[in-house]
Design goal:
The complex is a heterodimer. In chain A, 73% of the residues lie in helices and 5% in strands. In chain A, helix 2 packs across helix 8, helix 2 packs across helix 9 and helix 10 packs across helix 11. The mean pLDDT of chain A is 92. Chain B is α/β, with parallel strands linked by helices. Chain B starts with a strand and ends with a helix. Chain B contains ten helices and ten strands. Classes of the chains: A mainly alpha, B alpha/beta. Chains A and B meet through helix 6 and helix 7 of A and helix 2 and helix 3 of B. The complex binds adenosine-5'-triphosphate and magnesium ion. Magnesium ion (MG) binds next to helix 1 of chain B. The site of magnesium ion has 4 residues of chain B, from helix 1.
Chain lengths: 305, 237
């Protein structure tokens, strides 16, 4: 076995998995709190990629020439605007349907997804957009014939994801805000009787999901440098798969699901076949669904006392 | 003295089904008032309608002079009314401590909140298990938790919906003893019960709800002695 390939694919998988995890958080938290699959979440990610590219170009053209500063400012702006998208979509497309059938918000979400894709296509053009590479270079391990490397960009993705996930976990598990979210998730009526503005809590969860997607969008745009109006679809499906794999509704589940999906995809492409990596990823999903329908860390749907 | 809480001509419907008809209740500060009634009489409906779940069709509900029917559920929850709901509704996957902190004003009580220490004093059992998940508690312990959670906001009015339901006589006794202590601290209590014997002995005054309508009202002792009440709710002895 070629260990350098193994290590390389582990690094790649970890990077990919971190991105899936960041996006999966949005699916899992929204599902957890109102029981709907936000099919437009992948397109929120797509929007954030455009925003990142636009604001990076703008900041450079304003004469800002420090790369770290541009990256940090772009990230902040992208997170803020994407958060507004998340908040608005919930208000306009989902909240009015809160008390209707379960299917209605789902269909509304598909509508929002189409609207966002077409909006990006019309306003930014259908072609592939690209941004220049800002961070180059890598750490290499091994000799010239057998080496593996971690690019600085990959390090940044892994580090930023780990910090974001850590911060989010702390927020949900250890703060009053997190308790309000978990209470709203478990029993919305009782939570509001205790004085929680559950509508606000629900909106805030959409905002958090959008912010995490924006972080992913920005990082991926910086790494791969190209995207189009359709990237949200496939990345969204993958992240959704990760959320289901880990147990939809479970925050650590989304992170674990993302990592498993990313690692299995890259190991499969490294050692077996690149063309069928998606088949492999979805096969894992099917297997988990057969043997543990609630996902790896998910709770069974009904938890009676 | 003006009323802390009053319900006037209240009608509540679930779609076409009318659950409460022209209900009037008033409670003064410091009183212990009970409402007894059979299954399906509309007791829980009355308590939940205070919080707009469901919104009343007609009538008014006033607390400290404020009209509750105009408020959103969470606004009522922040006025100084706390509910121990039917079925306890504790947050089963959260710890006992977290459940209690949820009950604090604005749901932001922290671990050193003096009210938390006081609740642990009332229910030492909860303190022993503070880091355990609420879902692992026995029924009686969950009831204590639901009461403790409601007390965390130092409510002016404590509403209880059948706290004795499904509990062993010894546990019921313990819970009523604690309610006595809470009442002595000056909390106004509105207790909904099917267990008329306990409830009427405990309360200053009572109402009898039959099919969504108040049929009888009087002091606890009067109602205990009333032949109709004895026949319907006390097994007719
Ligand atoms: N969500 C609902 N939808 C429709 N009807 C309801 C609903 N909740 C209660 N009802 C009806 O309203 C009436 C009053 O119910 P309620 O739960 O208030 O009774 P209760 O006095 O609390 O009874 P119990 O002692 O069994 O708890 C019943 O006829 C019940 O079937
Ligand atoms: Mg009831």
């Amino acid at each position: 076995m070629d260990f350098h390939i193994l290590f390389q694919q582990l690094v790649n998988g970890l990077t990919l998995g971190s991105v899936y995890g960041l996006i999966a958080v949005g699916y899992t938290m929204v599902y957890g709190i109102i029981g709907m699959i936000n099919f437009a979440h992948g397109d929120i990610y797509m929007i954030s990629a455009y925003l990142a590219a636009i604001f990076m170009a703008l900041l450079f053209s304003f004469g800002l020439d420090s790369v770290p500063l541009v990256i940090v400012c772009t990230l902040m702006i992208t997170m803020a605007i994407t958060a507004v998208y998340g908040w608005s979509i919930e208000h306009v497309a989902y909240r009015p349907l809160r008390n209707s059938t379960r299917l209605a918000p789902l269909i509304s979400a598909i509508g929002v997804s189409l609207i966002l894709q077409n909006y990006a296509q019309i306003s930014q053009g259908a072609g592939t957009q690209s941004v220049p590479t800002l961070i180059e270079g890598a750490l290499r391990f091994g000799d010239d014939n057998a080496f593996f490397q971690i690019t600085y960009m990959q390090m940044m993705i892994i580090a930023v994801s780990a910090v974001s996930m850590g911060a989010l976990t702390f927020l949900i598990q250890r703060t009053a805000y997190g308790r309000k979210c978990r209470a709203t998730q478990q029993d919305r009526t009782m939570a509001s009787i205790l004085g929680i503005n559950t509508d606000f809590t629900i909106s805030s969860v959409f905002v958090i999901g959008a912010i995490m997607a924006a972080i992913a969008g920005m990082l991926v745009t910086l790494t791969y440098g190209s995207f189009d109006f359709y990237v949200g679809f496939i990345v969204g499906i993958k992240a959704f798969t990760a959320a289901v794999l880990g147990g939809i509704g479970s925050l650590p589940g989304a992170m674990l699901g993302g990592l498993i999906l990313g690692l299995s995809e890259s190991l499969f492409s490294g050692f077996i076949n690149t063309d069928y990596k998606d088949v492999f990823a979805f096969s894992i999903l099917v297997l988990v669904m057969i043997f543990k329908p609630s996902g790896l860390l998910g709770k069974p749907l009904v938890e009676k006392v | 003295m003006s009323n802390l809480f009053e319900v006037r001509n209240l009608d509540v419907c679930y779609g076409p089904v009318q659950a409460l008809r022209d209900v009037n209740v008033e409670i003064k500060k410091g009183e212990i008032v009970t409402l007894i009634g059979a299954n399906g009489a509309g007791k829980s409906t009355l308590l939940m309608s205070l919080f707009g779940q469901p919104k009343p069709k007609n009538g008014s509900i006033r607390f400290k002079g404020e009209e509750l029917t105009r408020l959103a559920t969470h606004q009522v929850g922040n006025l100084g009314i706390a509910l121990v709901p039917e079925g306890r509704r504790v947050f089963s996957s959260m710890t006992i401590e977290e459940n209690l902190m949820m009950g604090g004003a604005g749901c932001t009580a922290d671990k050193d909140d003096p009210v938390l220490a006081h609740v642990y004093e009332l229910f030492p059992r909860l303190k022993e298990r503070q880091h355990q998940r609420a879902g692992t508690l026995s029924g009686g312990e969950q009831q204590m938790l639901a009461i403790g959670r409601a007390l965390m906001s130092r409510p002016d009015l404590l509403l209880l919906d059948e706290p004795s339901l499904g509990l062993a006589p010894l546990v019921i006794k313990k819970i009523f003893e604690t309610l006595e202590m809470i009442a002595k601290e000056g909390t106004t209590i509105f207790l909904v019960e099917q267990n008329a014997n306990y409830a009427l002995k405990f309360a200053d005054r009572g109402y009898v709800l039959v099919n969504g309508n108040i049929k009888l009202t009087g002091s606890g002792d009067e109602l205990l002695a009333d032949p109709e009440v004895r026949k319907a709710y006390l097994g007719g002895h």
